[in-house]
Write a structure and sequence with these properties.
Helix content: 10-25%
Strand order of the largest sheet: 14-15-17-18-19-24-23-22-21
Number of domains: 1
Shape: globular
Strand content: 25-35%
Largest sheet: 9 strands, antiparallel
Bound molecules: MU-OXO-diiron, calcium ion
Number of strands: 31
Radius of gyration: 24 Å
Number of helices: 14
Distance between the termini: 35 Å
């Protein structure tokens, strides 16, 4: 606590008065906490924000009227100025008043030239290879022409993370692992494999409305079933990467479970292979597998692909799983380009990767391992970005240093190198090469003492303020004796956001400072222990931050993924604008809400901040007993909503939404 605050607190006549007068601070102090504890907890290590801190403390002591006038005097104008929408849940999407939220493309819509129209009752893998895939996640906007900041014409890269067979296929229902996925024929599995991957769309804004350009020469589907990819970096060619189909260990077909991602300044996208474990199969007991598989949860048996495709059966192909779990770099500007798996960035459940050019020209990529008690990583390239050498830039992510984060209680962060031969990562300790570290990255990170986090998802550097924002979704499994300063809540059901400040503004530095920007959950429920700016309304708080976007003005937007627990918060997932700087730091406001059972992914702005693309993923999928009317498990025939078509013959369809301001203007004001 700062000296000024100590002085202010000393003036409070008694603790009870301080509590009463600070009732709008959304932490309900326990009977044993002092006001100092409350403020300290709320504004721990926030020395740079003395203004905000002082305002709250003055309010706490002098009463609501003083609080208001002090705020008026000191608070910055809210940097977002839309009318907040309300928490809730129904069958459709909602956006703040004064904005349009239009459907851009839906699962099954034609993508490549000559693609057949969608016929959900006669699906084939051949058709799906040419149509928009399932469960749109990451969205990357790349202006056309390349290198411009055109906000009316560009490429949209889309991840198709996974499939929901019960919503996709007529007459099937949810398949049961215990029943060996009895309804899943090879034909249906091949459709699933074609529905995974990515799409490249050319999109254009004309008379204020965005459209997908039909027959575009850029249009492309990337699929798990057919797209040939290359493995590069330290692990490429390693013995552990060799399979019967690829004795070189350098070529692989497809990518799996691509979740979030980022665009690079050289016009490519980086997409993260996340939950790869679910696709691997064993005919035996999945709990009795080698330690190497276990650390990655392989085989998860979420899908029955291994029944028909030997490469997904670990009994038949021991090494195929080593070839998934990477950041994949794709050049959407060239429809014939070969996607490249960058093994130098490590192998884990990559949510995504976001790069920033460091002041010295080196490229720094931040990437999270989205699983409970997993780690936060960054990669620093050996060479520098050269705006005139695109081909050279496309090799930057093959050579450099991978680091994993250790968060200390004093607010410092140390980036620990994962380099063979350094520290504990020696052959004597079982790490035989850099390739080994790039394949068994989790084990290497365990060994160097990284900090287990509450599910690190999207991680984005903000070029405007030089800080880095880490979405930590939740971790219901963290026990009271496992809490630490950076993951301070046991049974963390709602997640939090950590802000990192690299030392000296140097993203390549091995040291940084960190603090918690906010703790998610309902601030009116004391046990939740949420922390926001006190002006945040009863609609502005959120749960389970997952993806984020930094707009052109450096403002943070956060999308949520609550899973089935949306019933407990009584609101569908959505998009929230979060203030990071100034007197309103930690203030959050709801901008967009999904239809029931969906999560919101991929927020991305055009360079002019006048268009915002959003991916509505798995609408209707997450039924919940906690919310009347939506307790059932949806199927193709009986979904909780038929969004976005609302046609009884059409299944519910994951779709991309584009938001614009009516009459034009900045999103969020
Ligand atoms: Fe695919 Fe971490 O969400
Ligand atoms: Ca995600
Ligand atoms: Ca993002
Ligand atoms: Ca998620």
């Amino acid at each position: 606590m700062s000296h000024e605050i100590k002085q202010l607190m000393a003036k409070a006549s008694n603790k009870a008065e301080a509590y009463e007068l600070s009732e709008n601070i959304p932490i309900n102090p326990s009977t044993t906490a002092t006001m100092g504890d409350v403020i300290n907890q709320r504004y721990a290590r926030r020395s740079v924000l003395r203004g905000a801190l002082a305002v709250s403390a003055i309010g706490a002591i002098a009463g609501p009227a003083a609080l208001l006038s002090a705020r008026q005097a000191q608070a910055a104008t809210p940097r977002v100025s839309f009318s907040e929408i309300e928490h809730g849940a129904d069958g459709t999407h909602h956006v703040a008043e004064g904005y349009n939220a239009d459907i851009l493309i839906r699962w099954g819509d034609p993508v490549v030239p000559g693609a057949p129209d969608f016929d959900p009752y006669n699906q084939t893998s051949w058709a799906q290879e040419q149509q928009f895939g399932y469960n749109n996640d990451y969205l990357g906007y790349l202006p056309l022409p390349m290198g411009s900041d055109n906000s009316d014409h560009g490429l949209l890269f889309v991840n198709h993370e996974y499939t929901n067979e019960e919503l996709m296929f007529p007459g099937l229902g949810k398949q049961d692992r215990k029943a060996n996925f009895a309804g899943m024929t090879q034909e249906l599995i091949d459709i699933e494999m074609s529905a995974h991957g990515g799409s490249v769309l050319e999109i254009k804004k004309q008379t204020g409305k965005w459209k997908v350009v039909k027959g575009s020469s850029y249009a492309r589907r990337i699929t798990t079933r057919t797209t040939k990819m290359v493995l590069s970096g330290p692990a490429a060619g390693d013995d552990a990467m060799k399979t019967a189909a690829d004795p070189t260990g350098r070529h692989v077909t497809g990518m799996l479970n691509n979740c979030a991602g980022g665009t690079t300044p050289w016009g490519t996208v980086l997409t993260g292979e996340e939950n790869i474990r679910g696709y691997f199969w064993t005919d035996g007991d999945k709990k009795k597998v080698a330690a190497h598989y276990k650390r990655y949860g392989i085989p998860g048996k979420w899908y029955a692909w291994g029944k028909y495709h030997d490469r997904f059966n670990i009994d038949k192909e021991a090494n195929e799983s080593n070839r998934f779990g990477y950041i994949v770099e794709i050049d959407p500007h060239d429809p014939n380009s070969v996607p490249i798996k960058r093994t130098a960035l490590g192998r884990f459940a990559h949510e995504g990767a976001n790069v920033i050019i460091n002041a010295d020209g080196r490229v720094v990529a931040y990437t999270g391992d989205d699983a409970r008690f997993e780690y936060l990583y960054k990669f620093v390239s050996a060479s520098s970005y050269d705006p005139k050498d695109r081909a050279g830039n496309m090799r930057l992510l093959d050579e450099g240093t991978l680091y994993v984060a250790r968060f200390d209680a004093d607010g410092s962060l140390t980036w620990l190198p994962l380099v063979h031969g350094q520290g504990k990562l020696t052959t004597a300790n079982g790490f035989v090469s850099q390739a080994d570290i790039c394949i068994r990255t989790r084990q290497a990170a365990d060994r160097v003492g990284a900090t287990p986090m509450d599910r690190p998802e999207d991680v984005e550097p903000n070029p405007k303020n030089g800080k880095v924002y880490v979405m930590l979704t939740n971790n219901s499994k963290r026990k009271a004796d496992q809490v630490d300063a950076a993951n301070p809540r046991a049974k963390n059901n709602f997640g939090h956001i950590v802000e990192i400040t690299p030392d000296g503004g140097n993203h390549a530095s091995t040291s940084a400072k960190w603090e918690i920007l906010l703790k998610a959950g309902d601030p009116s429920v004391a046990e939740v222990g949420a922390m926001y700016h006190p002006d945040t309304s009863s609609n502005g708080w959120f749960a389970s931050p997952d993806n984020c976007a930094i707009d052109g003005q450096g403002r943070l937007w956060v999308s949520t993924d609550q899973g089935k627990s949306w019933g407990k918060t009584k609101t569908a997932d959505g998009l929230y604008a979060v203030e990071t700087d100034g007197a309103l730091r930690g203030y959050s406001r709801m901008f967009f809400r999904t239809p029931v059972g969906a999560e919101l992914c991929g927020p991305v702005f055009t360079p002019d901040d006048q268009s915002l693309f959003l991916a509505v993923q798995h609408p209707a999928a997450d039924g919940t007993k906690d919310y009347k009317g939506f307790e059932r498990n949806s199927t193709f025939e009986d979904p909780a909503t038929r969004w976005p078509d609302f046609d009884d013959k059409m299944p519910v369809r994951p779709s991309v939404v584009v938001v614009t301001k009516k009459g034009g203007g900045l999103i969020g004001g």
